[in-house]
Recover the amino acids of this structure.
């Protein structure tokens, strides 16, 4: 007597699509004029394109070339960038809010009045770069090469600059309150008129660093000195 044993198969809806895979955008189309949400944008050549005040939300950009592009008022929110190129691009009043930027290049880029709040830059090329003001609060530039970059007047409150190379960087008038500079190299950096409230400089390299009287007093007190500034 032969008995046929049938094994039940798990039910799989034919239309099931992994939730982690964003829909891919192919071709420039209207996305530069309308923005996008939840899209995957890969291998696009946006060389010298002009992008205005549109919003990209929760998008993934991979190998997108924005060399010499002009971004004016563009917003990227919760977006991820992999090996993208902003070389010689001009970014005016552009916002990267809560973004993850990995192995991307900003070589010779201009960031004018940009907002980088809560964005993480990892293994990115950030120099040479022209920066004109901007709100970079809580940005992570951990281990970044910012040698010689002029960050005059930039709002860097609560930024992570630990282990960054800030050799010769200009931080005149920058707002560094609450920023982490643990093991950062500030050799020959200019910290005059920078606000340094809640900044621990004890593990940073400060060789030939330029500071004003207020910062000098703070540094002396950190090393146990009792400073008498009375006339």
């Amino acid at each position: 007597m032969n008995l046929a044993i049938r094994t039940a198969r798990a039910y799989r809806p034919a239309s099931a699509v992994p939730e982690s895979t964003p829909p891919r955008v192919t071709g420039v189309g209207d996305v530069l004029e309308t923005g996008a949400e939840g899209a995957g944008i890969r291998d696009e050549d946006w060389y010298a394109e002009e992008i205005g005040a549109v919003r990209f939300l929760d998008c993934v950009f991979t190998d997108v070339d924005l060399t010499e592009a002009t971004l004016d008022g563009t917003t990227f929110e919760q977006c991820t960038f992999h090996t993208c190129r902003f070389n010689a691009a001009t970014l005016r009043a552009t916002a990267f809010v809560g973004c993850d930027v990995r192995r991307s290049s900003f070589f010779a880029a201009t960031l004018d009045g940009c907002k980088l709040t809560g964005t993480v830059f990892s293994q990115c090329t950030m120099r040479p770069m022209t920066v004109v003001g901007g709100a970079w609060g809580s940005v992570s530039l951990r281990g970044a090469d910012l040698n010689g970059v002029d960050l005059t007047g930039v709002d860097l409150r609560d930024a992570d600059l630990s282990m960054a190379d800030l050799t010769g960087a200009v931080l005149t008038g920058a707002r560094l309150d609450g920023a982490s500079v643990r093991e950062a190299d500030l050799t020959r950096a200019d910290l005059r008129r920078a606000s340094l409230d809640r900044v621990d400089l004890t593990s940073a390299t400060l060789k030939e660093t330029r500071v004003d009287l207020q910062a000098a007093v703070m540094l002396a007190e950190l090393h146990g000195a009792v400073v008498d500034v009375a006339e």
Summary: The radius of gyration is 23 Å. Residues 136-225 form a domain with the Pectate Lyase C-like fold (CATH 2.160.20.80). The chain has two helices and 15 strands.
